[in-house]
Amino acid sequence: MTFDRGAPDGAPEDAESPRLVNVDQVPSVRPAAPVPVVPPQGDRYEERRSDLRNVPSDAYDSSDTELGAQLGPVPESQVHFPPPVGLHRQARQAPQARPVPLDPYYRANDRRYDHEGEREPREPRERLEPREPREPRERRVFMGDEFVKENLPPLMENELEFYIKDANKYSYTNSVRSEPKTVGNFRFRLLIFPGGTQTTGGQQVSAFVEAFPLEGLDPRWCFHAVKYQITLVNWLNYRNSVTKTDTWSFSKDGIDRGWHDMVRVSELVPETGWVGPECTLYFRASCYVRSADQLNLSNEYNCKKETGFTGLKNHGATCYMNGLLQSLFHVGDFRRIVYSIEGDEESQEDGHEDDEGKPPQLIQALQNVFYKLQTSDQAVNCRELMKSFGWDTTDAFTQHDAQELNRILCDRLEERMKNTPSDGSIKRLFEGEMENYIECIDVDYSSRRNETFYDIQLNIKSERGQELQTIVESLHDFTAEETLEGDNAYEAEGHGKQRAKKGIRFLRFPPVLNLQLKRFHFDLEKMDMVKLNSRFEFPRKLDLSQFAPEGGKYDLFAVVVHNGDVNSGHYYAHIQPDPERGWFKFDDETVTPCSEYAAIEDNYGGNDLAVWNYFDRSPTELRNAAPATRSRSHNAYMLMYIREDLRSEILRPPDPKEVNPRMVERCDRDVMVQEQKRREKVEQQTKIKIKLVFESNLCSMSGFWDHAQIPWEQSYKMGRDHLVKDFIEQLSVDAQVDQNHIALFVLQYRTSPRQIRFGFMQPNSLFKSYIPQYGGQPHFDVQDPSLTVLMILSRGYNLQTLKWEREEESMADNLLMWEDDKATMLVVKYFCVETRRIVTLGCYYMSNSELLIKMVEGGWVGERLQPFMDKNEVAVIDPSECTWDCWEEFSEREMQSRGVKRGVKHEQLYSGDILIWQVTRPAEQEVPSEEGIAPVYPIHTVADLCANQVLCAAAALVAVYNFCNSWSFVPGPLRKHAPVAAASAAGVMMAPAAFADEIGDAAKKLGDASYAFAKEVDWNNGIFLQAPGKFQPLKALKAIDKMIDMGAAADPKLLKAAAEAHHKAIGSISGPNGVTSRADWDAVNAALGRVVASVPKAKVMDVYNSVKDITDPGVPAYMKSLVNGADAEAAYKGFLEFKDVVEKNQVTAASAPASVPTGDKIGVAAKALSDASYPFLKEVDWLSDVYLKPLPDTTAPKVMKAIDKMIVMGSQMDGNLLKAAAAAHHKAIGSIDAKGVTSAADYEAVNAAIGRIVASVPKATVMDVYNSMAAVVDGSVPTNMFSKVNPLDAVAAAKGFYTFKDVVEAAQR
């Protein structure tokens, strides 16, 4: 990774730092030319090469310095006369500073600037000859000898000093370096130019801190955010010293940093105090280093290639887990144990979540992670392992404790290995033993208790408050004896109170010793947890022989570090898998080599000396002042030591193929699956799926078809950056059609007007230009992105075979030359007035200047219409003998007439627009009515048919309200289960009841007794539409009210399960009687039994009694006569037994009422809808028996499919809103008048409730219901219903409904 210079003390950069800055405050590096320019703060600076023209060729040579001599001169083509290595690298990246002429140097605020405007840079001056020193300024009054240089405090540990004798003998660009100083493992020195650098033209003394890396550091070393300070000390008054401070990330490419302008060379005379005896300059410099060396990595860095190791992905806050897993993984013996464990047979097939969403076993998830760490080139995903812990997304962003996780892992593995050949392996590796003892001092009595441990928790601060410095000190504290005496004396059995010694002795240490440093400590004064950052040293080799018999010697293997405080932080690990290869840092996905110092000493913790400007303090103040320090927030938290004599055996990496071949097969299979998913994801990001639609596909559709229903022939995958013409070339080969005869049109949205139409695809355009930015195209799913593309061929090709059918193919139109402003492609339909059927004829392209009637007169319409006439789908006509009307299908609700004798351009038609042709029908001609059917509203044109579709909405409104007002609305085949049907429609509300499987067992017995009877019932019989006795609509409504009340009290989860059982049962219906399968019959009965048992008995009996009141006593006998009597008796007997089991498990209390939303947009829209439609509502004859009539031209199976869609929709509704809707219906039924009309207020409440439950269901599910009902409701039904009310009121209701629908859709999830 690369590092940028941080601001001092971690503060943010000053965003308002001017380019014209005080040279007293600007850190810089030596430039490559003697141009008096002030560089920007905190960055190195390099002059433009054009400013070097006047510099003598021998002014400076990089070989004059030590490092420069090693690297040799820089080629003249790059820069003239470069300074020493590192001083000008990357300078081109710095912003150009404003040139400022350097005036004579003044102290403090006497520095003079021209703030009025920019000056032109001066030409570099010649080297100044020595001149007479200036008289000291009057303001420089020395305060005796108190502040002389000799009274400065001694050097701090992070500070160096540098004396430069005969400073006036140095010419400019000549440098001298100090002896190095090491802080941590950052070695630095001072680089001084007593005669100045080329930047200042030899006018200013220049000083720089130069990194001098220790031997053995990686060449990519970087010390991040080092704060440094340079002081040129005034010998006579150190308070006048020049001190400058900045922060910089030192690296090979940014090896030095400092300032060109410490003090003017002309002032280097004894009278000013800048030089001492023998014209000596005196410098002090210090550095505060936040952390040890890191690596400056490029974007091409590859962990596996560079180190042979792989990182782990961080899934939010899982760094603690990553550090621990890496430490355990590199213990080869532990890895072998994990590999050796056999999983369950079923789980061996797939280590991932199964179809039921069950998380994988922990052991298999851990095996997958370890195997991928050993074999993968990419950072490994740990989500599967986290799921095996039972964690969710929230846990991934919660910082857990690494030591706690270690114990969980070991405990789970031990439990999994019980009674297997691997049993005890974890204990042999990690388990140690200690003895808790109490030994009496004055009598011969002792008590001992042995216990095992997997880790030792060592105090950083003892219980007495003493800070412990090393592991040995902490172990002594851990085993320290405590004397029990006085009131705290030990009660020795048989000896009474006795003085005793209490303590812990180690009996044995494990081969792998885990030490947890107790850095998180409860502070009794703060009454809160705090992190202890005090210094705590741990050795590379640990001798434990003094703490246990045969304690042995241990080598440090891993250091898990915590960087942060008690509330937040980051974990990473330093591990030494192989002593010969050194240490590595494992920081989530990144694995890098690191120095031994970075792994060990840098993580001791403690305080570091900060940079301190003490030159403004008196000697007295300095004697009493303490140096500034900063606490080191990164420090060791867990240590792992391995017994020295067992190290090679324990760390030896296992071969997974030898340890567990079955595991390898499973893991390899999983890797292949994951790789395939990854490739698919990459492909999804780089390619787009093309659903290719042929013209013949459109011709298979009829009516006002939805573009979402367009069938497609085949799919292709095309690169998003590929040209459309590349796809045309491919289609040309696949279809064996000349590419000049192909044009492509993509399905897309138009914004003005809002339409979904096909638009022309330019051959030289890219596919990605047609991909919506926010997934706003039809057929476009973000999860599975695709484009629907229509292929049009030149006229003369057969729609089905795609073969040329005319004599000369050269006569085919060249569609490759298509221009949208000259030609138009129209989708053409035909409406037959006699059959009221709309068929699709295909696609017709024409010049924009051609008349629309040409497609009729040219014979194209008649040619495409002939197959439909042959199949009697439309009435037979002679196109040449007819008068034609033409309409544009402008929207789903609007038809616009188009002039047949006008051109495309004049009619404002564009490619993709839909035209519908029809034969002109005289207005006086009426549609005959069938006997027994009320007169219908006449349909003369396709516009009339469209208007009737609008009226369907009003009919739907009637149907919804009718659900609450008519017993006969319950669908025929489900009439016997009307109570349950109403319950399913009424609510999904309460907490689940805990039923045993007793109801399920009883349902199977009921199935045994009743399935023969069920198969004999003709479920498609229209008898179920008849009233079960005398027609009493208001009384039936009371029964429905009881059903709604029962449904509102049912358990929501059980209701949903019942709905899903019905959905599945409908799917298995077969045979002439419409019978479901035996398994689904049992499942439905069980589901219904559980629903009924979740409702108090009183509510169930209310339904039973209310239905009994409207059922003629002769109905059961008559129904029995339609089937085998013995089977019916057996079914009834089985039902009574089933009823007893359900009653046994029945609840006694109903749930709390639902909360009703108020003030929402749907509620406001419902009021507007109610105001617009209530007059229409009052005109409807709710007591009519028309609702008992069967729907024309449909069948029971078709109706059943529509009902199935309703059941699915109901199962997806929000439980509370559904319960609130049930309550609204219950209240509305209570306010109905003698005509079956509820009050306006209750009507509004019902509309609001229905709107809310619809909004709680995905739009696709609602549209499934709408489309399925549209398929079974003939156009004559809304026409007939429309004829029974005031048409103006019906239209007003429909308009209000459409407005309401838009509000609901906007709120839909």
From TrEMBL:
The keyword Chloroplast applies. Residues 157-287 form the MATH domain. The keyword Plastid applies. It holds the Pfam family PCP. Residues 1-137 are annotated as: Disordered. Keywords: Chlorophyll, Chloroplast, Chromophore, Light-harvesting polypeptide, Plastid. Its main location: plastid. Residues 43-52, 108-137 have a biased composition (Basic and acidic residues). InterPro entries: MATH/TRAF_dom, Papain-like_cys_pep_sf, Peptidase_C19, Peptidase_C19_UCH, Peridinin-chlorophyll-bd_prot, Peridinin-chlorophyll-bd_sf, TRAF-like, USP. SUPFAM superfamilies: Cysteine proteinases, Peridinin-chlorophyll protein, TRAF domain-like. Residues 310-644 form the USP domain. It is found in: Plastid, Chloroplast. Water-soluble antenna for capture of solar energy in the blue-green range. Peridinin is an asymmetric carotenoid. This is Ubiquitinyl hydrolase 1. It comes from Durusdinium trenchii.
